[in-house]
UniProtKB/TrEMBL annotation:
It holds the Pfam family PDH_N. The keyword Oxidoreductase applies. It comes from Anaerosporomusa subterranea. This is Prephenate/arogenate dehydrogenase domain-containing protein. One of its GO terms (molecular function) is prephenate dehydrogenase (NADP+) activity. Belongs to the prephenate/arogenate dehydrogenase family. The lineage of its organism: Bacteria, Bacillati, Bacillota, Negativicutes, Acetonemataceae. Pathway: Amino-acid biosynthesis. InterPro entries: 6-PGluconate_DH-like_C_sf, NAD(P)-bd_dom_sf, PDH_C, PDH_N, Preph/Arog_dehydrog, Prephen_DH. Residues 1-280 form the Prephenate/arogenate dehydrogenase domain. PANTHER family: PREPHENATE DEHYDROGENASE, PREPHENATE DEHYDROGENASE [NADP(+)]. It comes from the Bacteria.
């Protein structure tokens, strides 16, 4: 979905229109993108056609990127720019640099946009509009390559920020990774009760809205949890502490503490919504 959205956006908004090679194991996705004139050439495996690529976007689950990087490395020309859209950076960046040949330039990237759906059928050329697109260079990053990827991200309508990998992973753990885990846990919580189907039948908008992202791709999120384990574990421990404090307040019928819990959350979320509205 992310790769397809990037391709659609590049075709729609970048001038002169780039020539795009789509590389995917899914022949149906390639066929659909080719038929819609989103991509110009197709391939299901790396080969000499990659020698013409100036820029390569890696859009697979994080743990698969090692395999993909190793497979495309022999076909990358000197000066080519390789970037990715992975949700974690500290784990990935050193592995990418060790696998890719020294004559290419690597820029770690993460578009903070997505949906609970996956695959090319869910792709949207406006997916990144007004969303953050984070770039995570290091001391060896080629400045010209960084500026080019920034320009392409901005052409997709994204807001671009640059930060180091550790800070990125800590932020992502709190505002993206842990919420996905919490949504999945809420759905799985139904199985802890004797009649989950009745509970699900009675569920309304609150349950649906809270758990929407639990429909996300399981392979992608398994990779995220493994590759960002330190930051996610820290965030989960803090989350458990918040729940433990609330549990204690409920057990003690401490209405003031319970009310403070919800009031604080409302203030923070209302402030967040106001910031988002102001940034539009």
């Amino acid at each position: 979905m992310i790769g397809g959205s990037i391709a659609i956006g590049l075709k729609r908004y970048v001038k002169p229109c780039p020539v795009i090679l789509g590389l995917d194991r899914n022949a149906n996705s390639l066929s659909a993108a080719k038929q819609q004139q989103v991509i110009d050439r197709v391939s299901q495996s790396p080969g000499p056609e990659l020698l013409q690529a100036d820029i390569v976007f890696l859009c697979t689950p994080v743990l698969q990127m090692e395999v993909v990087a190793a497979s495309i490395a022999p076909f990358l020309k000197s000066g080519a720019i390789i970037t990715d859209v992975g949700s974690t950076k500290s784990w990935l960046a050193p592995r990418m640099k060790s696998l890719l040949p020294p004559h290419v330039r690597y820029i770690g990237g993460h578009p903070m946009a997505g949906r609970e759906k996956s695959g090319y059928s869910a792709a949207d050329g406006n997916l990144f509009r007004d969303k953050w697109y984070l770039l995570c260079p290091d001391l060896d990053t080629d400045t010209q390559a960084l500026q080019l990827i920034r320009a392409l991200a901005e052409s997709l309508g994204a807001k671009v920020d640059v930060m180091d990998s550790v800070r990125h992973d800590q932020c992502a753990a709190v505002i993206s990774h842990t919420p996905h885990i919490a949504a999945a846990a809420m759905v799985n919580l139904l199985d802890c009760y004797p009649d989950p189907q009745t509970s699900l039948k009675l569920a309304g908008g609150g349950f649906r809205d809270t758990t929407r992202i639990a429909s996300s791709d399981a392979d992608m999120w398994a990779d995220v949890c493994i590759s960002n384990a330190p930051a996610i574990l820290g965030s989960l421990q803090a989350y458990q502490g918040v729940l433990a404090n609330l549990s204690a307040a409920v057990e003690q019928a401490d209405r003031a503490a319970i009310r403070a819990f919800f009031a604080s959350a409302k203030v923070h979320r209302d402030s967040l919504l106001e910031q988002l509205d102001n940034n539009k």
